[in-house]
Design brief:
two-stranded antiparallel ribbon; eleven-stranded mixed beta sheet; alpha/beta; 40% helix
């Protein structure tokens, strides 16, 4: 028994004529007769009293008809709703992001996308870079903006921008006496606060690996849950915190950039490999437009990426 056979039977039951039912279904009578016979065989009952004139349904036929009409109607509603939903999803873009990108160019990019695609609903989900990879593979998000260089063969990752790193410190810290760029070795034997503590790997690992590669030794390292907590402890003189420059969200503490402009944190656009959906190119166009329209992106706080914008990250 399949849906086509049920539709054929409903047409026959409502017309009580193989000729009229075949016309309604836009088929000839022989295939209609074969499908009705196959339906009866699969059910193991007779649905049509063929010897009677005019044709009549058996008791089983009447029961089957009464029960199948609402089922077929419901299935048609499901089909229409599914088609409509697919159209809605084409106008819906789900974006994963790490919180720190909200302090930089992402809000401007969002405004640009809304202006260019006013009928597209933008949906945002806060998640780590690693969570974005899994969400992309599972189809829970369409694109992601993260900071970690995580490799996955099924995901394309492209650097949108590099933000220079800065050090947050309390106003009474000895290093807060000037705004001059900070030599990295000044961090030796300092207390360091890193975030987030979970899940890992995260921006905390990026900071720790960067400092380890440059042989910086800290007096202590404390892991905290988020940027806001870290900066609150910085204000309480509990240690220093390394942050993307655009994440200077508190006014009651002091910030200094590093002398080395290669100390930076990338913002990485991630999406599924071979995804040719309209929003991929739409996002890239909006990223370029945002870079061109907003001088904020070319302050000393950031590295000018226009020559190499959207460079794909290799496996290595």
């Amino acid at each position: 028994m399949d849906l086509k056979q049920i539709r054929y039977f409903i047409a026959l039951a409502e017309t009580m004529s193989f000729t009229e039912a075949a016309k309604r279904l836009h088929i000839t009578q022989p295939p209609l007769s074969r499908q009705i016979q196959a339906l009866e065989a699969s059910l193991g009952v007779t649905l049509i009293e063929r010897d009677n004139r005019p044709m009549q349904l058996t008791e089983a036929g009447r029961l089957f008809y009464e029960q199948m009409v609402p089922v077929v109607s419901r299935m048609e509603d499901i089909r229409k709703n599914t088609v409509n939903m697919a159209g809605q999803f084409q106008r819906r873009l789900s974006i994963g992001f790490v919180p720190s990108v909200l302090y930089g160019a992402l809000p401007m990019l969002i405004r640009n996308m809304k202006e260019k695609y006013p009928e597209t609903e933008l949906v945002f989900q806060e998640m780590t870079s690693m969570q974005q990879i899994e969400a992309l593979k599972a189809g829970r998000i369409d694109v992601g903006f993260g900071r970690m260089k995580l490799y996955d063969a099924s995901i394309v990752r492209q650097i949108v921008r590099r933000e220079r790193l800065a050090v947050a410190m309390s106003n009474d810290h000895p290093l807060a006496e000037t705004n001059a760029p900070l030599p990295l070795n000044k961090l030796n034997n300092e207390k360091l606060l890193v975030y987030p503590s979970q899940p890992r790997p995260s921006f905390a690992d990026h900071v720790l690996n960067t400092m380890h590669d440059r042989r910086i030794e800290f007096k202590s390292i404390t892991e905290v849950s988020c940027l806001q907590t870290a900066l609150g402890l910085v204000a309480a003189a509990e240690g220093l915190c390394i942050i993307p420059t655009m994440a200077r969200i508190r006014q009651d503490i002091h910030y200094r950039q590093f002398e080395d402009d290669k100390l930076n944190s990338p913002i990485i656009l991630s999406y599924r490999k071979n995804d040719s959906s309209w929003y991929i190119q739409g996002l890239k166009d909006s990223i370029l437009q945002t870079h061109q329209d907003n001088q904020l992106l070319f302050e000393p706080t950031s590295v000018d990426l226009i020559p190499s914008l959207l460079t794909e990250i290799s496996k290595n």
